[in-house]
Amino acid sequence: MKLHEIKDNPGSSKNRIRVGRGIGSGKGKQAGRGGKGQTARSGVRIKGFEGGQMPLHRRLPKRGFNPPSPLDLNEVNLGRVQVAIDAGRLDAKKPITVEALIAAGVVARARDGVKILGKGELKAKVAFEVYGASKSAHAAIEKVGGSVKTLRPEAAPVAE
Questions:
Q1: What is the fold of 74-150?
Q2: Which of 89, 96, 133, 154 gives 20 to 30 Å between its CA and that of 76?
Q3: What angle do CA 54, 57, 58 make, to 5 degrees?
């Protein structure tokens, strides 16, 4: 078999039908588009229209919840903090706050706060003052002798 001998299988492609070329062709007048109106036009079709029946996307219930004002937090892994400490951009003796992380170039801007995540390894004993920290980050920080002070307001207890 050579490249110039490759052919499609017989019947795999059909010849194009030229529509709208006179009634003698069998595809003249309305060119296979049926009658007049919206469906005969190009580019227009009511999406999801089901003949007056309530469309499926309106019959199904809405799901989920989008909070009206979600928090936009910076997420910082412990590995990035350790790299900044090793490079001398962060001082391990001072508490690490949002302002310190911005000055060190770890985060670009303050947003709504910083959440510390547990990916990477922390070697320095550091005190964090941040919006929150994951359980794994909390454990890793306390393992090396550091501390985490969360600035997140505590949730009010639910009255029953």
A1: Ribosomal Protein L15; Chain: K; domain 2 (3.100.10)
A2: 154
A3: 50
